[in-house]
Design a protein that fits this description.
By secondary structure, the chain is α+β, with helices and mostly antiparallel strands. It has 2 domains: 28-59; 64-173. 30% of the residues lie in helices and 30% in strands. The chain contains 2 helices and 8 strands; from the N terminus they run αββββββββα. It has helices at residues 20-59, 161-173; strands spanning 64-70, 80-88, 91-97, 106-112, 124-128, 137-142, 145-152, 155-158. A 4-stranded antiparallel sheet has the order 1-2-3-4, with no helix packed on it. The relative contact order is 0.09.
């Protein structure tokens, strides 16, 4: 004869069983959580693709942005700066025409972007006087990082480290 249960210290051991309704509820909870995670990933991917398509309509492909500055002197139409930035396979190229004269066109090599989907990033140019010398300087913003090109007698050049430190010190004093 086989022994199914035997007493321990004079007591019968109680076995704990998980009821069928509890295990189904737990399985249902896990399945719901997995479904919500999958849904969140799909929504995130959809928003990412939507943003990319919106930037395709806004900036084209390859990504290009431009800005034009018209000086108000000379009864309405004065010297004009035209700047265009293009992201060509992760290399930012900058084309600048100072004073509206195409014979003075400057081509600058901007930063090279590294990372996932770098070809979809937009380099946004901004024209303003950064160092207070009265000449229009160029700022290019990519992925939240700002690259400054100073106007040195009509020629744009990247800002040097000592000039950047001097500008940062002037900003702290204000």
């Amino acid at each position: 004869m086989a022994v199914v249960q035997r007493p321990l210290n004079g007591r019968w051991r109680k076995t704990q069983q998980v009821s069928r309704s509890t295990s189904l509820a737990l399985l249902n909870l896990v399945a719901t959580m997995l479904f919500l995670v999958a849904l969140a990933l799909l929504v995130q991917r959809g928003l990412e693709l939507g943003e990319r398509k919106l930037n395709d309509w806004r900036y084209g492909f390859p990504r290009a942005a431009r800005v034009t500055l018209v000086d108000g002197s000379d009864a309405g139409r004065g010297p004009t700066w035209w700047v265009q930035t293009i992201n060509l396979n992760g290399q930012i190229s900058i084309f600048a025409i100072p004073n509206g004269d195409a014979t003075q066109m400057q081509t600058l090599a901007g930063p090279y972007l590294v990372g996932y989907h770098n070809i979809y990033e937009v380099a946004v140019p901004t024209l303003r006087d950064v160092n207070g010398d009265g000449q229009v300087d160029l700022m290019v913003t990519v992925r939240g990082e700002v690259f400054v090109y100073l106007n040195d007698a009509g020629t744009l050049r990247p800002i040097r480290a000592e000039e950047r430190a001097q500008l940062a010190g002037a900003d702290r004093d204000r």
